[in-house]
Amino acid sequence: SDKSRTENADIDKVPISARAAAASLSLGPPRLSPDGTKVCYSSSSSSGNALFVSPVQSPLERLATPFSVKSGYFGFGGYYSFSMDGSSVFVVESTGDLKLVDLASGSSCTIYSGGAVSDLEPSPDGSKIAFVVGQASILVADIDGDDIEVSLVADLSHARSGYKSPDFFASPKFSPDGIYLVWSEWSFPDMAWDASRMVMVRAAGPKYPPQLVVGSPNGAFSVTQPKFSPSGSDLYFISDQSGFSIPWRMSLSTGVSQPVF
Fold first, then answer.
1. Does position 166 have pLDDT exceeding 50, yes or no?
2. 179 vs 201: CA distance, rounded Å
3. Peptide bond into 189 cis (omega under 30)
4. 60 phi/psi in degrees, rounded to 5
């Protein structure tokens, strides 16, 4: 109608100043504390990226870090996560360094410096944190003690029998007992959603080479976003084995995989 055309024309003419556009905020993905009482999230603006923590039952937010942080947007993981007791946050500074920030005092310590860190995954007991560096390696830092010890779990040199050596890593996840670590990896020129695989390694106790869990030697399907079930008896992941990307479940006792629905 003429009236609707006139209203639309008026909307099209609403001016937006450069200052108003610059002042707009972009919020990163929220992360809940293990006890579900707090949430942390990044807020990006023209002045930088900041990490905020807020009680779930209150609208009050508090700046958690005195430094600029990564925004939280990443193709295969996040740049911040609560510690298991909820008293601290693991966060990736804008420089790429991984830090642990105490929420009560605001003090921080550097856990790892030397590459672009992402995909943070604290262990269930809070003694370790796994993370990806530059999408090209997976490291685990032991933070249970006065000295931080960082060990290599997987990198580009870890070839799989019958498969090309991996070029990219993402989404490391601990088992509920903290003994195993699983992740998704893939090789150039494929993308993760084209052809990827799921690999698992023992993260505590006797060490063994990483073992392929689910994958296709000829790149017939993708396997991404792995996650253990609460009991640790099954692995969940996203795969397009059936032609569509849907959730799958694999029994660790039988090795049988099937769609969740």
1. yes
2. 9
3. yes
4. -75, 130
Question: Strands of 88-92's sheet, edge to edge?
Answer: 80-82, 88-92, 98-102, 108-112
Residue 67 identity (one-letter amino acid):
F
What's residue 161's pLDDT? 72
CB atoms within 10 A of CB 6: 10
Cα–Cα distance, 169 to 186 (Å, whole number)? 7
- Residue of higher predicted confidence among 84 and 205: 84
- Each as own residue / partner, the long-range contacts of residues 234-238 (CB below 8 Å, 24 or more positions apart, any chain) are 235/182, 235/198, 235/200, 236/260, 237/184, 237/198
**Nearest CA-CA partner of 161 in 96, 215, 100, 227:** 215
Model confidence over 86-129: pLDDT tens digits? Answer: 999 999 988 888 999 999 998 999 999 988 898 999 999 999 99
Instruction: Check: CB of residue 92 under 8 Å from CB of residue 132.
Output: no
pTM of the model: 0.82
Report which of residues 239 and 19 the model is more confident about: 239
Report the C-alpha gap between 71 and 74 in whole angstroms: 8
Cα 123 to the center of its chain, rounded Å = 13
Residue 10 CA: distances (Å) to CA of 3, 5, 20: 11, 9, 19
Domains of the chain: 26-122 (2.40.10), 155-261 (2.120.10.30)
Answer yes or no: are the C-beta atoms of 111 and 164 closer than 8 Å: no
